[in-house]
Every structure is written in C-alpha cells, then in structure tokens.
Amino acid sequence: QVQLVESGGGLVQAGGSLRLSCAASGRAFSRLTNGWFRQAPGKEREFVAADRWDVGTTYYVDSVKGRFTISRDNAKNMVYLQMNNLKPEDTAVYLCAADPTRITALTRESSYAFWGQGTQVTVSS
Questions:
Q1: What is the DSSP-derived secondary structure letter of residue 85?
Q2: Of the four listed, 16, 23, 94, 104, which is most buried by Cβ atoms within 10 Å?
Q3: How far, in Å, are 11, 38, 61, 87 from residue 18 at the CA level?
Q4: Cα separation, 119 vs 36, whole angstroms
C-alpha cells in the first residue's frame, strides 16, 4: 500500500498563508496522480487541486484559483499545497490523495486509490 501523511495545517488569520505537505511511502509521487480535497463540518468532501504527473498540468477548483498552488518535489517524494490569502471559508480538513493511474476524473474522490488521514486548517476572521 501507499501510505500518505499530511502535515502543515493549523490556525491562521484571514489573509495568511499555510503550506500543507503530503509525504508518501511505498511508491514515488513521480508516478502518481496527486490531488487535494477538503471537507468542512457538515459539508461534502470537495475537490481542491490536482497534479497530472503524465502531462505536467495542474487543476484547481474555482474558489482557490490564484490563491492555492499544488506542487511536488520528486526528490523528497513530497507533494505540497501552498495556500495564500486564506479565507474563513477555507476552513476544513485537508486530505491528500493519490492514484497510480492516469485518471481523468480528477475531481471525483472515487478516482483516487490512496488517501491520507487529513490535516486541519482553521482560518479565523
């Protein structure tokens, strides 16, 4: 199995920044499609960002475009989500996801075989 562990969450004021990290063991991120999802209390899990390793492109939900950036460091086998200009509505548990295939339905959680346990991000107003 691929083990994913998120870190970097915390409490931040609106307008602040956080960088979430996802560490993988068991398989290199360089051969995985990577995604970030989030889930707020009482809300459905929501797609945030994804990285298509095969074509080197990234995708974002409209609400985070221009503020969040997904990236990877293959040498460290890490995936990151840089979160800038955070808003209270960004408050959620953020989960790292990965899949060994060249998935195309990037926004569907069912497309990803491997998941981390999540890290809490809380943005105060």
A1: S
A2: 94
A3: 9, 14, 18, 12
A4: 11
pLDDT in tens, 4-17: 999 999 999 999 99
| 105, two tokens | 């339905």
Closest CA to 71 of 90, 86, 58, 62: 58
Structure tokens at 45: 């899990």
CA 119 centroid distance within chain: 10
State the Cα–Cα distance between residues 124 and 87, nearest whole angstrom.
Answer: 8
Quickly tell me which residue has 């199995």 as its tokens. Answer: 1
Report the pLDDT averaged over residues 41-69. 93
Q: Which residue has the tokens 């051969």?
A: 31
Distance from C-alpha of 3 to C-alpha of 26, rounded to nearest angstrom: 6
Between CA 97 and CA 95 the distance in angstroms is 6
In this predicted model, which residue has the larger pLDDT, 32 or 70? 70
Q: Which two tokens stand for residue 64?
A: 């985070």
Per residue, the 3-state secondary structure of 19-59, as one string, reads: EEEEEEECCCHHHCEEEEEEECCCCCCEEEEEEECCCCEEE
